[in-house]
Amino acid sequence: TGAWLNFSFSHILSLWGTQAFLAMRPVSVWQWSLWGLLPCLLCSSCLGSPSPSTAPENRAGSQGLRFRLAGFPRKPFEGRVEIQRAGEWGTICDDDFTLQAAHVLCRELGFTEATGWTHSAKYGPGTGRIWLDNLSCSGTERSVTECASRGWGNSDCTHDEDAGVICKDERLPGFSDSNVIEGLVEVRVPDGWSQVCDKGWSAHNSHVVCGMLGFPSEKRVNVAFYRKLRKRAAKASARRSKPLGRPITKLKAKPKPRVGRGPIKRLLAQRQQHSFGLHGVACVGTEAHLSLCSLEFYRANDTTRCPGGAPAVVSCVPSPLYAASSGQKKQQSKPQGEARVRLKGGAHPGEGRVEVLKAGTWGTVCDRKWDLQAASVVCRELGFGSAREALSGARMGQGMGAIHLSEVRCSGQEPSLWKCPHRNITAEDCSHSQDAGVRCNLPYTGVETKIRLSGGRSRHEGRVEVQTGGPGSLRWGLICGDDWGTLEAMVACRQLGLGYANHGLQETWYWDSGNITEVVMSGVHCTGTELSLDQCAHHGTHVACKRTGSHFTAGVICSESEPLHMLYCAAEENCLASSARSANWPYGHRRLLRFSSQIHNLGRADFRPKAGRHSWVWHECHGHYHSMDIFTHYDILTPNGTKVAEGHKASFCLEDTECQEDVSKRYECANFGEQGITVGCWDLYRHDIDCQWIDITDVKPGNYILQVVINPNFEVAESDFTNNAMKCNCKYDGHRIWVHNCHIGDAFSEEANRRFERYPGQTSNQII
Questions:
Q1: Is the peptide bond before 320 cis (omega within 30 degrees of 0)?
Q2: What is the disulfide pattern of this chain (predicted)?
Q3: How far apart are CA 123 and CA 383, in angstroms?
Q4: Are residues 652 and 714 in the same domain?
Q5: Would the pLDDT of 151 be above 70?
Q6: Is residue 736 packed enough to be buried (19+ CB in 10 Å), middle (13-18) or exposed (0-12)?
Q7: How far, CA to CA in Å, does 605 sit from each of 19, 611, 717, 719?
Q8: Among 26, 174, 559, 567, which one has the highest count of C-beta atoms within 10 angstroms of its own C-beta?
Q9: At what angle do helices 372-381 and 203-212 cross, to 10 degrees?
Q10: Mean of all residue pLDDT scores within the chain
């Protein structure tokens, strides 16, 4: 036999404990509460896809540029200035920055003027390009393009010098802010949906409602304006009900309403029949759910409800993660300094194990006294809403390394978890089996309705189909498989709500495409952090594919989670490292290096299992027969030959997957068929099957040798065993593996083989 292996080294998977995901519908925000309350927002301006097809209208002179405020912590009218040019977001250096430049930028952002500006990345360092440096404006320019600078992209700054602005909280006439979500609040009670009386309604109440809807902050609403609209709508309704022929007094001309109020006006007019069910809402602002606030329900016999009041209206502000005008490249802004927080191990956005950065090292948080207030601080800090759940007991998998914080006690008002009182931990205080986690409220975007899978064996795999076009011309189509990989598959699985990506496939000939054959998207390139494929770079309406046909289109295999309880069968067959025996089953994790392998028969006789079918061993857990208990060995060796990790693969199905053109397949595993590999054929073991991996959980970063040996115990006679082994030099940095210099065992001369074994290892990721 000869071995040829297709390694998918990007598939170093972290396997986490059982995870549940609750999809957010447009109207329901919380599926369980103390009171059974389910608030919704009847939106006049609600959030659609995070990457809409049309951008807000650019002002004259903007030349296709787009602007946004980013960073944390901040208010809606302040932040780090970011500009999108040629599809790429970037920042402005603070060198020579003045209040005059801030005035121009605030007008670009839709505000009337600036009240101040900041330097030295006050709102946290940005990412990507630094578009402008030494920006010099007089303050009267209509666009930043009219200001002097060093030129686009010409800068000697770092992101520690990113400039920010503080704008006056007043909008320019005619400016539409697509990043503000406004609407009437309605609450689901046992009898149906009811409105909330706005008497005594406060910003704290809005803060809680917006948090439940997935937004980190709220914006002040002009209550007097809405009440005027309500009165005028009521008068108009009364006039329409008068008999014909009676004179109707005209309304006096009113000032032009602020932009964005028109839809609210129509909404108020449509909902004149108020159905108030709740009043006296008094939140402190730290609650994670409206039911935790002080409130009162109207009694059934209350004939007068909300006298002199109106339905409560809130205005929510999404973070840059979901802001409609944020464009295609969404980057999660990081707070300044070491007070940084991240989520790891979650199968879906807004959930995961909480990790914090201290003294340059990431560590976890102990779950002692961990509650919804602390979890909500984390969620809002990361740009989500309040917390749906505060998870304890390493529900999102055990972390590695240090445990930085314990007994975190937040009030819920803190801008960062680091601002909460906490106790520094010692080694004996807590273990990783007590790592804290969160599930956050996310805004509904509807992106999952624009993608689907077809032809797969289950709902978690298949050919990727996306919806394109505008109203009246929507159609489903395929994605070109050129350059499609794991990062793109990660985004697709995330958009589908199916969690992790096990694999991104460039050829899908084994999945039926049905009646969808048109390729509508090509050149897709993702960073892996996007929320939908729309946000990834791609060719747009111009589709260019090197290989035509529906068989060369993109496919994915997703997995909502791979907790340890999914590995019981693999553990039974000793496919995990010995340390797995002491793992926190079923919530621990294993790091697996997965790959696919092709086993070619290059000999002159068929390769058959040593034993006949009558003596094959049935394995109940996996539900198949083993024709050879040890068919392949997988090893990670140090340069001096010491084994640091190993794996093995039993032969449960030896068959002819593919053959040379003039050779016919003879062996097939289906229906307890004969097993073997015909001369001129090869067997394919895919990376997504159990034990097709090496458990590298305990392997430290360094330089190693990867070794694969077929038929290691010489159970089947062959004319030549030297081509059954393959070796590669590899470097592991704790997250990724670089492999090079791969060769079959008999491919090198003796001198070349000695040089390979004496290879000192890579000092960088550059292979020369």
A1: no
A2: 93-157, 106-167, 137-147, 283-293, 366-430, 379-440, 410-420, 526-536
A3: 13
A4: yes
A5: yes
A6: exposed
A7: 49, 17, 10, 9
A8: 567
A9: 80
A10: 76
Q: Is the pLDDT of residue 336 over 80?
A: no
- Give the tens place of pLDDT for each residue, 520-559: 999 999 888 888 998 888 888 788 999 888 888 999 988 7
- Percentage helix, strand, coil, to 5, in the chain? 15, 30, 55
Distance in angstroms (rounded) separating the CA atoms of residues 183 and 189: 19
State the average pLDDT over residues 492-509: 86
Q: Using CA atoms, how far apart are residues 220 and 24, in angstroms rounded to an integer?
A: 25
What local confidence, expressed as pLDDT, does residue 22 receive?
Answer: 19
Q: What is the pLDDT of residues 700-758, one digit of tens each?
A: 888 998 988 887 777 666 666 677 788 888 888 877 788 888 887 666 666 776 676 66
Instruction: Please tell me the least confidently modeled range out of 100-114, 410-424, 550-564.
Output: 550-564
3-state secondary structure of 494: helix
Asked if residue 403 is part of any domain, the answer here is yes
For the cut 90, the answer to whether the pLDDT of residue 138 exceeds it is yes
User: What is the Cα Rg of the chain in Å?
Assistant: 30
**Confidence band, pLDDT 50/70/90 cuts, at residue 482:** very high
Same domain, 369 and 483: no
Using alpha carbons, select from 496, 513, 556 the residue that is nearest to residue 688.
556
End-to-end CA distance of the chain: 31
Taking the C-alpha atoms of residue 11 and residue 59, their distance in angstroms, rounded to an integer, is: 46
Q: Return the structure tokens found at 33.
A: 């509460």
Contacts 24+ apart (CB under 8 A), 106-110: 106/165, 106/167, 106/168, 107/59, 107/142, 107/172, 108/59, 108/62, 108/65, 108/67, 108/143, 108/144, 109/67, 109/68, 109/69, 109/81, 109/165, 109/167, 110/171, 110/172, 110/175, 110/177
Single out the residue of 101, 105, 150, 159 nearest to residue 129, CA to CA.
Answer: 159
User: Is 326 domain-assigned?
Assistant: no
Average the pLDDT over each of 189-193, 657-661, 708-712, 763-767 and give the range with the smallest value. 763-767
Q: Are residues 406 and 500 in the same domain?
A: no
* Amino acid 35: pLDDT: 36
- If asked whether residues 534 and 667 sit together in one domain, one would say no
Burial of 739 (0-12, 13-18, 19+ CB in 10 A): middle
The phi and psi torsions of 633 (rounded to 5 degrees) equal: -110, 135
What does the pLDDT look like over 31-40, one tens digit per residue?
A: 223 334 566 6
Rounded CA separation 343/542 (Å): 37
Specify the residue for token string 């791609």: 538
Closest by CA to 22, choosing from 33, 14, 13, 12, is 33
Residue 266 maps to a domain? no
Within this chain, do residues 389 and 474 fall inside the same structural domain, yes or no? no
Helix or strand (DSSP H, E) at 582: none
What are 175's two structure tokens? 């400016």
Stronger pLDDT, 566 or 580, i.e. the higher one: 580
- Per-residue HEC secondary structure of 384-437 comes to CCCEEEEECCCCCCCCCCEEEEECCCCCCCCCCHHHCCCEECCCCCCCHHHECE
pLDDT at 223: 66
Residue given tokens 């035509």 in the structure block:
548
For 328-349, b/e burial (b = at least 16 CB within 10 A) is bbbbebbbbeebbbebbbbbbb
Residue 377 lies in domain: 341-441
Lowest mean pLDDT among 105-109, 190-194, 272-276, 731-735: 272-276
Which of the pair, 622 or 359, is modelled with greater confidence?
Answer: 359
Structurally, the chain folds into a number of domains equal to 4
Which of 273, 327, 240, 262 has the alpha carbon at shortest distance from 58? 327
Confidence band for 167, pLDDT divided at 50, 70 and 90: very high
* Domain match, 403 and 460 both: no
Question: Using N-to-C axis directions, what is the helix angle for 261-270 and 223-240, rounded to 10°?
Answer: 50
CATH number for the domain spanning 499: value is 3.10.250.10
CB 163 within 8 A of CB 372: no
Q: Which residue type sits at 165?
A: V
Q: What is the DSSP string of 477-489?
A: EEEB-TT--HHHH
